[in-house]
Amino acid sequence: MKNGISLMDLAAELTRQQDTRRDFIADTRTTPVMVKEREETVEIPTALEMQIGDDKHTIRPHALRQIGERLKIPAKYVDRLAADHPDMLAYNINALFSREPESRMIRTLDGNVRAFLSDKYRPLDNFDLANATLPHLATAGAEIQSCNITESKLYIKAIRADLKAELPPPPGVEMGTGHNFFVETVQAGLTISNSEIGVGRLAIQPGIFTERCSNLATFTSTSFFKVHLGRKIGGQDESVLWEVLSDKTKELSDAAIWGQVNDLTTAAMDGTLFKKICDDLIKARTDVITKDVPDMIELTQNKFGFTKEETGGILAELIQGGDLSRYGLHAAVTRHSQNIDDYDRASELEAIGGKVIELKPTEWAEIAKAA
Question: 331 lies in which domain range?
Fold first, then answer.
């Protein structure tokens, strides 16, 4: 499992962001984009800024990509103009904002535009999610093993050290004789994640933590996801800039979601889902890889979108682990996740490790079974 920041630091940053973020609903004709005056001593994320009301906000790279996507400007073109000809990009954006006007939600933080979203986007914020789940994790006896808040997502990863199981070697295999099959001890795990800028859904994902190698794998089939979609926000007069403020109606509406999140967080830690996952893992130890390993790894790379460097690292972990089974492949993926510098990508690999276990028999045969 990838290390993040301390729970105390996470709480402090969530509180700070909760107090400083601002959300707006605006007609695009009222939010012109311009080239930002560059100060030589200050690094800025992009060369563009957006006028929102009386203030100018630097546009973060992700928000600029969202603007380009909404206006059907190819991402490579956006990136090139942003780097070399920001005035041309500003002209393109403003012209399309004027000719194809619409109402959008604009999320800002620390004087930056961090997201450009639909006016139907329903903010389910990190601060509220942490408040909803952390007490229930403590009540369930779970310990926070890793947490982080990146530019795109919040992560809270917990395990129950008292809820564990042993995964035996495949039937008929004598432990430790001519192979690397050993009894694996796993603990119940859980990953809670959310994106406030449209990168992903709010997710409660059960998982398993392998004691021997500190691997975490998360599973999709037993997960809960909540899409950030609600009713249209704003008034009839689209020339008016609306600042989205917390109100009683929103609080009551969100209360039902947080109640559901609470129930699922508790259920994910009560052992029922953990038993199902363990049964799947035991079965996965019998799914032996019979295809040539380099061919199998190439097919795995294509299926899950690994980079060349990731593929090489996973292959090295698989060979070192010596467990040429579906379980061994999942372990190689999750073990290599700890070598990834980017916390978001490391978390994606933890989820891919779970997806390896959840592959349908036909999908597993395609990548791992010799013809």
Answer: 287-368
pTM over 0.70: yes
Alpha-carbon torsion (238, 242, 246, 248), positive or negative: negative
Query: What percent of the chain has a predicted confidence (pLDDT) above 70?
Result: 86
Q: What is the pLDDT of residues 99-140, one digit of tens each?
A: 999 999 999 999 999 999 998 888 888 999 999 899 888 888
Structure tokens at 16: 């700070």
- Number of domains, the chain: 1
CA–CA dist 120, 122 (Å, integer): 6
* Strand residue runs (E) in the chain: 22-27, 33-35, 48-52, 55-59, 103-109, 112-118, 143-149, 154-167, 184-194, 202-210, 215-218, 224-226, 242-244
Query: In this predicted model, what pLDDT tens digit does every residue of 203-212 receive, in sequence order?
Result: 888 899 988 7
What type of residue is 183?
Answer: V
Residue 364 falls inside a structural domain: yes
Q: Is residue 291 part of a domain?
A: yes
**Which structure tokens are listed for 363?**
């999908």
Question: Is 321 inside any structural domain?
Answer: yes
CB 206 within 8 A of CB 273: yes
Sign of the torsion angle spanned by Cα atoms 125, 131, 132, 138: positive
**Radius of gyration, CA atoms only, the chain:** 23
Report yes or no on 94 lying in a domain: no
